[in-house]
Amino acid sequence: MKTLALATSLLASLTVLAEAVVLQLDFGSSTSPVATGTTAATGNFLSNTPTASVSNIEGTGITFSIENVGVFSFDNATEPLTTDGFYTFGNNENSHNFTLSGLAPGSIVTLYAVAAWDGNPRGAQVTFGGTTAQAQVVGTPGTTPTLANYTLIGTAVANGSGVVSGFIAGAHLDDPTCEGQVGAFAFNLVPEPSSSLLGLIGLGALILRRKR
């Protein structure tokens, strides 16, 4: 009985290690309100930020960075996710690449995004994992947003250096004068289980099967 209980506990614990983690980044200025459950990523108000970045997100050792963005903010504490954010500074004249680094190689990363202060028509075109979609907000996020408030963009696999990347562009790709805005990103991370972890999970399952 003790062996069965130990195997059950081991299997549950190891499975948790391979479960997804969601990291939400709320874009704005250093004085912008931040939504509950998100990490602030800040840039320069109404001027270019050559590289905006945030390190060690939620203690994970993961770093996010994005190039050539400006910030606008209404400082609205009741809707912090969508009333401020980044925009494509210089629009088509500059690159607006972003990276997420510090991942385990082989991790599966799914990106979600929301539009910002000018609403869905000005949502940036976001490219990630070979897919391009416009950042849109769904419903009213309020102060405690969930993934249901974001738009799915795409999925990528971390390379051997533990990095995934993408870029944002103007709301209308054929109009160089129309900036793209993004209020927040959310990354859903599923780490690739190591061979040793898979082996331990298999061992736990085998013990359970034999005991039953």
TrEMBL record:
Keyword field contains Signal: yes
Keywords for the protein's UniProt record, in alphabetical order: Signal
Domain Ice-binding protein C-terminal: 190-211
Domain of life, per lineage: Bacteria
Signal sequence extent: 1-18
Alphabetical list of Pfam families matching this protein: PEP-CTERM
InterPro entries: Ice-binding_C
Matches recorded under NCBIfam families: PEP_CTERM
Name of the protein in question: PEP-CTERM sorting domain-containing protein
Lineage: Bacteria, Pseudomonadati, Verrucomicrobiota, Verrucomicrobiia, Verrucomicrobiales
